[in-house]
Amino acid sequence: MSLMVGLLLTLGQFANAQKGFKLPKYEKFTLRNGLTVYMLSQKEVPLIQASVVFDAGAIHDGKKPGLAGITADALTFGTKTQTKAQIEAATDFVGANFGTGAALEYARVGMSFAKKDQDKMLGILQDVLMNPAFDTKEFEKAKKRKLLRLDQAKESPRSVIGAYYNKLLYGQHPYGNPTQGTKEGLESISVDDIKAFYKKQYTTDRAAIAVVGDFEKRAMKAKIKKLFGNWKTKRTTSKRLGKPSMQYNQNRVILVDKDDSRETTFFIGGKGVPRSNQDLIAIQVINTILGGRFTSWLNDALRVNSGLTYGARSSWVNNKLSGSFYIYSYTKTKTTIEAIDMALGVLDSLHKYGVDQKTLNSAKNYVKGSFPTRYERNSSLANLLTSMFIYGYNESFINNFEKNVNSLTVAKVKQVVRKYFPKNNLQFVLVGKASAIRDKVKKYGKVTEKKITARGF
Fold first, then answer.
1. Predicted confidence band at 456 (pLDDT cuts at 50, 70, 90)?
2. CB-based contacts of 146: which residues, under 8 Å, 6+ apart?
3. Distance from C-alpha of 50 to C-alpha of 209, rounded to nearest angstrom
4. d(CA 352, CA 358)
5. Burial of 358 (0-12, 13-18, 19+ CB in 10 A)
6. Are 325 and 301 a contacting pair, CB within 8 Å?
7. SS3 sequence, the chain?
8. What is the C-alpha to C-alpha distance for residues 407 and 395, in angstroms, rounded to an integer?
9. Residue 279 burial (C-beta neighbours within 10 Å; 0-12, 13-18, 19+)
10. pLDDT band (50, 70, 90) for residue 65
């Protein structure tokens, strides 16, 4: 790509940000079986994205961690009329993409295809959703692959540290469930377990489908009604979750021993906010300054100025009922304390000094400039619509985004930092060579030591 083309793209992005991105007009309706439908016509390119979500995430794993994930995978194992190979051949032949997966709070099935292939592909999507076969041989192969990945993950601190951190923050609340499951959980799962989970959680009363792309609205509405209107499922029997308590009265440190490690990977943080929090946009802007971009304070301190790491960042995870905040980085074993102290110093400076107007303006422009690009593709828009369903917000979050960013002041930043960014009772997870750092990290709080495992806690 030439420099001039790159410049034009950048200027175009800036122009979009200046105009203010608005969610295109969409239609929402509910079928008689309870299935919520979103339709958004976009005719720039002859492609269509269909995304379906269910209340079937890892929060429902119960005593079998990994059940939600492998059930979502099992939807690709074939149907009562088509084998896995036949479905793959049909989608590959027309260049369609088809995939499934389970996150913490939901399971998703997605398919993208050309406009000309919509009847064939929507028919396959219907068959997969309504008539899964849960083939035993495919299930056993998938389980072996997942168990192998768990064994491999324990060799990589960055693959498991999040599971340790969530367990520390949430304890026995389902938000502490590892989305990848555990070896013990996966080994205990049978095909009958998957069938029961599908029957209980893949219900139309807690599901939504979003169709975005090049189609005629009236014709697509008729197709969706014909394909899914007669889908009959029992109403879910799963109870709604209660909020996690997340009350911490002291610093806590989980030290995960990987005795052959030459570096320490760490999370530092605490309680976050739910997706519905009224200050979420302000938090995003402030986090951009702290650790949300390459030129953030954390990355400048730990990477650019000191060379202690190749990267440092801070992130907010916003679930429906609560959330978490963490600072993340990794460093050589011998510089563990120096790096952690520096990260804590950066967080402390945010509380002590806040941000000046120039820094705030830079972050606001960065956030506004990158915001429209998140929703350039049909898949992004479809995921946005289904996220609105899952988390219970509406388009005002999108349509008022720029206005809310612009309204953020230095004084408001101080209030938001004081209210939400943790300062006391911090929660630490460190993965590294315990024998080299256990005595040194005691200064951060009460230490609990664990061995690194495939389960992540």
1. low
2. 66, 69, 70, 73, 180, 181, 186
3. 7
4. 17
5. exposed
6. no
7. CCHHHHHHHHHHHHHHHHHCCCCCCCEEEECCCCCEEEEEECCCCCEEEEEEEECCCHHHCCCCCCHHHHHHHHCCCEECCCEHHHHHHHHHHCCCEEEEEECCCCEEEEEEEEHHHHHHHHHHHHHHHHCECCCHHHHHHHHHHHHHHHHHHCCCHHHHHHHHHHHHHHCCCHHHCCCCCCHHHHHHCCHHHHHHHHHHHCCHHHEEEEEEECCCHHHHHHHHHHHHCCCCCCCCCCCCCCCCCCCCCCCEEEEEECCCCCEEEEEEEEECCCCCCCCHHHHHHHHHHHHHCCCCHHHHHHHHHCCCCCCEEEEEEECCCCEEEEEEEEEEHHHHHHHHHHHHHHHHHHHHHCCCHHHHHHHHHHHHHHCHHHHCCHHHHHHHHHHHHHHCCCCHHHHCHHHHHHCCCHHHHHHHHHHHCCCCCCEEEEEECHHHHCCHHHHHCEEEEEECCCCCC
8. 19
9. middle
10. very high
Report the pLDDT value the prediction gives residue 292, as an integer from 0 to 100.
Answer: 97
Residue that has been written with the tokens 């997966």 in this structure: 101
Model confidence at 21, pLDDT cuts 50, 70, 90, reads confident
Q: What's the CA gap between 425 and 62, in Å, rounded?
A: 29
Evaluate if residue 134 carries a pLDDT over 70: yes
Q: Encoding tokens for residue 302? A: 């730990």
